[in-house]
Amino acid sequence: MPGILGAASRRRVAGGSSPLPESGRAPREKSHRVTSARAAGVVRAASAIHSGRRFRLLRHTPFAGVQRDVCCFLPKEHPLKTIALAVPFMIAASALADAGVTESTGQFQWGSAPVMTAVSAIGAPENARLDGYSFGDIDVTAGQSLLLSNWQFTNFATGQDFLDAFTYARLVVTIKSGGSTISQNTYDLARTGTSGSSVSWALVASAQGTNLAASLAAGDYSVEFSNTYNFTRMNGLSFSNQIANTAVSTATFSVVPAPGVAALLGLVRLGASRRRK
User: Which residues does 77 contact at the CB level (< 8 Å), separation at least 6?
Assistant: First the structure.
């Protein structure tokens, strides 16, 4: 990189100038290899020497394919040989539980006369708690369903943490029967507002009204809800992407009766009615 390293020039010594080496080029300062660090994204590092300091440009490609450039300066004599480096921007999954979350509330409709009911996993103390909640019986033969109408989520960041355009939030819903997982779906949450360092989220429109009891046979079920989200943490010139999750909240419901059983019962009743006639 001639523009950065400076144009090749003759060395001046007492009594005149020294000739160029046999290669015809001025000797350049030996560059060092920089090991690239990989995590959930891709980090590319390039280094050059400029004005007596070593300048490092780190290019990070996060989940959505959007690049961030983060620059930092290190002393020229800093040992940048092939050693493990502390990369200024690094994706780092963290076992953070409920960090910065002020509310996580589901809105549901179910039963014979469905009305919107809010049940909360975090915050909103006026609502029933989602963990241990029972939605009761869902009679699919009567056209009943268990609808996930919406999900309200609010989180914040303070101190060295911040939420930016790369921040996301998601809802994970897992339905189980006994110890077996029947289904697991992840739904995106969309930003609905920002207040200071807090961001509010809601279920994307395409996921609103999802019937959690759809296509389930008669039986008892548990449904687990949790959120996964991220935020950026700054420590001096270092940035790390912190991935966090809320604790799992488990509710229960039962499907009665199975569609096949209902059809069979209908045939039995029809046969009994004809025999009486």
Answer: none
